[in-house]
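Hello,

Our lab assistant flagged a job as stuck in the queue for most of the afternoon. It eventually completed. Since we weren't sure the result was trustworthy after the delay, we are filing this so someone can double-check. Below is the sequence as submitted and the structure that was eventually returned. Let us know if re-running is recommended.
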Amino acid sequence: MKATIILLIGLAMLGCSAKPEPLVFGKDACYTCKMTLVDSKYGAELVTQKGKIYKFDDLNCMLNFYHSGYEEVSDFKFVQVIDFSKPEKLIDAQHAWYVKSANLRTPMASEVAAFETEESTQVFKKEWNGVLLSWGEIQTQFK
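-- returned structure --
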């Protein structure tokens, strides 16, 4: 009997574990604008401590939701964005680097691409005549 209870508790805890899941382009819809995610170089995902997952087609949509108060910022266990240089790869948004440029055509006109390392931004920054921004700086762009 005790073994059954322990097993059930363990299974319940596994079911509630908060972890990111891949964005499915062509299928998943943006939580904010409801558009289907189509461009694998852009996208974002928020995962709460309880495991609720919110998916977004552009950084603009994610940051508007992030600051909306719908969920407390402290409740997010994962805040992730797509690495522009490695399409479909989700990276930690709080440690990512961002290039903002009017030459970028993003799903919801954020004009921002995310990169895992500062070094990987250099070619794109120059090519697009862009501005390099950190997580703290990018949050002031969309609210």
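-- support follow-up --
The delay was a queue issue, not a problem with the job. The result is valid. The two ends are 53 Å apart (CA to CA). The chain has one domain: 20-139.
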